[in-house]
Amino acid sequence: MREIIKLNQISKVYNHKQILDQVDLSIYEGQSIAFTGHNGSGKSTMLKIIAGLVRPSGGKVVYREKLLFHYVPERFPKMNLTAWQYLKRMGEIDGIPGKVLADRCEKLFADFFLTEMVHTPMKDLSKGTLQKIGVIQALLRRPQVLLLDEPLSGQDMDSQMVFIQKMNALRAEKVTLLMSCHEKYLVESLSDTVMAVGHGQVNEVDITAGLFAKEYILWFERQENASWPEEYRPYIQIAGKGCRARIPEHESSRMIVEMIRHGWKLRGMSDAQV
Ligand SMILES: Nc1ncnc2c1ncn2[C@@H]1O[C@H](COP(=O)(O)OP(=O)(O)OP(=O)(O)O)[C@@H](O)[C@H]1O
């Protein structure tokens, strides 16, 4: 495999806190790396440094050739533009002819179940929908390196499947994928390399080594006037009069609090791996 990016002794300090400490890393063409680790461990910082969006405090990123990057952030700024207006402008900047752009957008909107929302201002769209628009933008013109910051954190199950399919199609075309994520099944479906980020270090780990956060299955019972907490909707499946959710351990306490706040009662909890 051909090395396309090399991180030499990369360090990053924020407010006297050492987030990355002399990290060395080689990235190869067509590689698919998942960066995993606890909240605040430095995954986003790594991606942004690789994409050239954040300057390291020390060390150097060496690009072996000119590369087209696309970066899909975890959160989008709220904008007055509609999804269609936004993508049209982005496509124009990328130099895609009008008709080709319109056809590609129409197809991708349909693939991601977004057709009904394309004329809604982006400030009124959910986090998951905005992330899908970010992914569509990245798919309009094939990048050589695609960086995705927690790409599935707000997406429903059907969209997650579409996303995995599209990403694997890109991998088949030798696009290099770098993503931060917590979901074990996403890593298993998409990545060939897993890097654990923590304590300033980035180390390759074996996906089978029990590194991933434990997951829990939670059962909730609907109380009167219960509603859905938007941010957890993607994890929830309706089950009889209640619902169940599969959720990483680090998210579970917060989800329980939110569900109770939205009128649900916790009925059970079990280890998803058992
Ligand atoms: N622009 C910034 N200014 C100051 N501190 C920052 C900045 N960006 C990130 N940090 C801090 O750096 C640390 C690493 O943040 P980062 O977003 O890279 O973590 P992460 O692993 O991606 O977390 P998460 O899983 O929660 O998204 C955190 O403590 C964060 O507060």
Automatic annotation (TrEMBL):
* UniProtKB keywords: ATP-binding, Nucleotide-binding, Transport
Keyword set includes Transport: yes
Looking up SUPFAM superfamilies in the UniProt record yields: P-loop containing nucleoside triphosphate hydrolases (SSF52540)
Q: Which InterPro entries match?
A: AAA+_ATPase, ABC_transporter-like_ATP-bd, ABC_Transporter_VariousFunc, P-loop_NTPase
Classification via Pfam families:
ABC_tran
- Residue ranges constituting the ABC transporter domain according to the UniProt record: 5-224
**Nucleotide-binding among the record's keywords?**
yes
Upper classification of the source organism reads:
Bacteria, Bacillati, Bacillota, Clostridia, Lachnospirales
MF (Gene Ontology): ATP binding
Origin superkingdom? Bacteria
Q: Under which name does UniProt file this protein?
A: ABC transporter ATP-binding protein
